[in-house]
Write a structure and sequence with these properties.
single chain, alpha/beta, 13 strands, 7-stranded mixed β-sheet, Rossmann fold, 2 domains
Length: 284
Amino acid sequence: MKASVSGSLLLRGPQRVGLSAAISGFFAEYELAITKREEFIDDEHEFSRTQWTMDDRWGTEAEFEDEFSAIAEQWELIYSVRFNNRKQTVGILSSNESGGLIELLNKHDLDYFPNLEFSFLLSDNEALQAIADRHAIPFFLLNAKEDPLVFEEKKLDIINRYQPEYLSLVGYKHALSANLLANLTCPVIDTHLSWLPHDVNVDSYTSAYEMGVKVIGVLAKIITANVSGGLIVEQEVARVGVGLTRDELSKLGLSLEHAVLVRALLMLSNNKTLIYKNRTINFS
């Protein structure tokens, strides 16, 4: 039978002799070829990612889970499984084009994210309607000046209607409240400047330029209601060259934001990021 779909199994469990053999034995029992396997031990736990090519034994991830559940229970495993023939959905919240929105959607049209589809674009900026239409993405315009509770309730209603597997903030100007985060059923991915001086009265790039920073950094993180600062998925840094203007510094930072967001979406959609306590573990 010709293999046409690959799957990936990401898991963690208490460190115990025989766990690796049990995982390998599960796939061997079904005569499925493991194409890549990574594992390591930390904090008395074993973490691993297994990738395999498979036949049509399991039509859905839920069918795989039904058969794998006995091993998971026996070895006290926390796991997630993904098949690459199922596209995962991402909802976008954006306020402007400068955060890399156009670049992100263009990459998607070029099949840069084969496992993702963008299910909607929610914005407080009507100018983004044309961008959404160009990429055939449902667009929702909300008034950010109305009552904050009403504004938040409308956002949550749209998100719940589409039930995306991820939310991505792309140049989005409005903070998500703890209440909103607590009511979401999906991770929220955001980019955040780091290694820059901060002055509440001056924007970050102006402060950085005036202080003559030599390195700037950006991170992509998963925002949660109960983890201070979020869970870091990806990071990038760049040297600030001599003679760089304030506008050039800003463009450099925005290019880094776009790069880490793209990498974070790839890591998550390919089932390569595992959350453990207050940190993430990325597999290659």
